[in-house]
Amino acid sequence: MQQKLDYIDALRGIAILLVVTIHVNQYGSPIESYTLNQFIAEGGKGVQLFYVASAFTLFLSFQHKFQKEKFPIRNFFLRRLFRIAPMYYLGIIYYLYQDGLGARYWLGDATEITIANITANFLFLHGLNPYWITSIVHGGWSIAVEMMFYVVVPYLFMKIKNINTAINLLLATLVLRTLLQLLFEKYQLISSHTLWHEYLYMYFPNQLPVFIVGILLYFLVIKPDSLREIRGITVLALATFLFIHLCMSGLYLFPTHVVFSISFLLFCVGLSKYQSKLLVNPIIIHIGKVSFSMYLVHFAVLYWLKEYNFVEFTQNSVLNYAIRFCVATSISVTVATFFYHAVELPFQQLGKKIIDKLEKT
To answer: Is the pTM here over 0.85, yes or no?
Structure first.
């Protein structure tokens, strides 16, 4: 079974490599090629690939645990806590050391990191405030969104029994995020228009449809027979939404990051059927296994490479970028591997022991 699901770790590996591509281009001289810059700029959509893979694996895990455990929902939250919290808490401590408590871009017109901000990060509530969502841990917004999705996963698992329901939910979440987008674009709640625009991209309602795409992936790969349960009215509704989106661009029913997630859905289905060695190999699989730690540490790696003037290597901008990418990736994988074995695995094992003990009581 594990060998069959190696492509999921490979997907995570591809996702983190995509994320690294865009951040590497933000340090040192940028690539001069407009076309290549456009491609690299979309590397941030690797976060959406993470979300698709996450929803898929969470539903798959719930399927395996739901019938075997007495308290699967409680155990689910314990597993998630021991999976995410230890490394994220280290991230909070480290980035407070690296960046201090002073003003920064993500704080907008706020002048310092507050105790409330730090507390919200420890409680994974930082996604509720535009000034908190990613102002301490670099890339912390995606962790906030992921944790918010965890809250609704048990409910979704019990309510979504087939792919038809999943498609209907996708349409409902697209309507919800569109209405909220129109509302919040009209009624801005903070002074910085730029920061508010960034927040409306990062916050949970805007990313929720991407997770639902991951649930669609679960049914397509694990329960393909559910395709027979798709109703005609659902297909008509989907077609209507696409038509409205194409005719009325101001509504953005299918924003770019959701379109990317749908392309990732097709990519994942293809990879589940044909596991190319170019993509599913020991190196990419390992990077996928350590991808959470790598996501948190690669920002720090790039910071210190810049501090030690180790980001410029040649006058050729493309070659310069390629070398910087290889250096940053190699160091990030090495550091992430250490933290995976020193922090992630021990705390996951601790969580498992606690769950096993609670199950026996």
So the answer is: yes
